[in-house]
Amino acid sequence: MSEPRWLPWARRILLGLIGLFTLTPLYVMVTSAMKPLHDVQGEFHWIPTNITFQPFVDIWSTIPLAKYFVNSLIVSVSATVISVVIAVFAAYAISRFRFPGRQFFSVTVLSTQMFPGILFLLPLFLIFVNVGNATGIQLYGSRLGLTITYLTFSLPFSIWMLVGYFDSIPKELDEAAMVDGNGPIGALLRVVVPAAIPGIVAVAIYGFMTAWGEVLFASVMTNQDTRTLAIGLQEYSTQVDVYWNQVMAAILVVSIPIVAGFLLLQRYLVAGLTAGAVK
Amino acid sequence: MASVISMKRDAEPDAVRPGRDAKPKRRRPQLLPYLLLAPAFLLELLIHLGPMLIGVGMSFLKLTQFFIRNWSAAPGAGFDNYKLALEFDAPVGAALLHSFWITLGYTLLSVGLSWLIGTTAAVLMQSTFRGKGTLRAFFLVPYALPMYAAVITWSFMLQRDNGLVNHLLGTDLHLVGTGQDAPFWLIGGNSFYSLVLVSVWRSWPFAFLILMAGLQNIPMDLYEAASIDGASWMRQLRSVTLPLLQPVNQVLVLVLFLWTFNDFNTPYVLFGRSAPTQADLISIHIYQSSFITWNFGSGAAMSVLLLLFLLLVTAGYLLVNARRRKHV
């Protein structure tokens, strides 16, 4: 592509502005986490004058942050793992078999994705409460209930993305595996899954991010013991004094693992989207 | 969201595999695909479809706090909950209508701006230059960041007395007052613009990500052919890039619209439980009518109305696009 002479300048200016917009909150996050409390309570200053790492120590005692962290981790990891396994099987069925009801299944399951969460929040809340009353299985307020809920959130998009990815893997590979004496499941596990790793990684990132960041259902479905980070972090703000430096430090601590993981794996996501989603 | 794309894909004849790939006919119906699909189908049935149908049923009940423990005993309400929600002269209906317009304005502004920034960044980063990879990674950070982390940070920046926004606009640029004259950003009329700002910051990287993936699917030889024909860069953008992004854009805009219109998280984390009336988005409005007043029947009716509206918009959007595609 031949570029006119003004383009590099336009690119620098526009991308610079977008970059500033993107980076400013990140800069505030990092610098405020290293300020003492009185510096974040007074007028904002761009350059921190007194740098301290005390907020990173205090965050663990002000609220039970470690507990919330573990809760979020358990719920998000279980939801992601189960969702990916279920999605792989479902996507394989849709990609490799032609059977009555295939279209019906795709449309029904995938259409749940567009519906407002608020519509099934109320009934699901009541179902969980009533299942608990009737059978003694605690779903409301438990990590189990939240895990099941979250994995269904990422499932439709995951299936749809994996179908696109599986479609791009030549069917001859499956057939070769079956000639070697594998059944369809053997072909899936030995040939299709290894070939679809980028797509599977992309789906796993998506599932983990969905669960890690969810607020609406977490606000209703958790209690004191099972609270996740999404709700727990707000406890820094409900005090009479808002410990903004600790809020920012806590946010950094809970964000860095996921942002680092995302940035390491982002090329898989783009590859997965290119092959599956936007084809 | 994905439904739309999948329906479209299924409707396109070329997406269906040609006959040579078809499995050899078997005498008995295959059981395996159904077994493979069963877990996904059952879970979606239990957590999404079932509750949704129950929600529709609940909207016809007088389901107040007295019947939460035993909601099968709640008396029927007929269409009362709907009448209440749609009576725009009465307080409940008027508040719902107000919330609807706020949400529509919020959605159009947020989706429009996110799409514009996402497209600009994706197109400008189409050719290679030094530092492109790093810049792309930075641009994706807001998308990777847990949603509440981003919104809490913005709520700090938007604080009146110790926030960055008032410092920048007041102390540095002298555009607004300082001290006692400093404006509020999280209550009153400004809260609407704060909400849009935060939403755009969160959403544009998603548009960027999808458009970047879409741009990679445009064959390079189209640009080479256009160059040989003497087409300028602007001409190539107008006649090659944007038309070929059209299918991706159609889906992207619809997805962003549905997400933003249903958005609960941004206002909930930004404002806490009591959103200012100027930024009273519909999800928050329904949540408050349900969980604060414990009137689940009325909340369910409002959710069903919201769903019907979104279904109408989606169907209309797909129809218009399908017709346009046929005419071109």
Characterise this structure.
The complex is a heterodimer of chains A (279) and B (328). By secondary structure, chain A is mainly alpha-helical. Chain A contains 13 helices and no strands. Chain A has one domain: Orthogonal Bundle (MetI-like fold). In chain A, helix 3 packs across helix 13 and helix 8 crosses helix 9. The relative contact order of chain A is 0.14. The model of chain A has no long low-confidence stretch (mean pLDDT 87). In chain B, helix 5 packs across helix 8. Chain B starts with a helix and ends with a helix. The longest helix of chain B is centred in the first third of the chain and has 34 residues. Chain B is built from 13 helices and no strands. The N terminus of chain B is likely disordered. Chains A and B meet through helix 1, helix 4, helix 5, helix 6 and helix 7 of A and helix 1, helix 2, helix 4, helix 5 and helix 6 of B.
Total domain units of chain A = 1
Strand content of chain B: under 5%
Q: Give the distance, in angstroms, between the N- and C-terminal Cα atoms of chain A.
A: 23 Å
Task: Give a count of the beta strands of chain B, DSSP E runs of length 2 or more.
Answer: 0
Mean pLDDT figure of chain B: 84
| Annotated CATH topology of chain B | MetI-like fold
State the helix count of chain A.
13
The CATH top-level class label of chain B: Mainly Alpha
Number of helices of chain B: 13
Order of helices and strands of chain B: HHHHHHHHHHHHH
Structure class of chain A: mainly alpha
Task: Output the radius of gyration of chain B.
Answer: 25 Å
Largest sheet of chain B: none
Tell the overall outline of chain B: globular
* CATH topology heading of chain A: MetI-like fold
- Terminal-residue CA separation of chain B: 26 Å
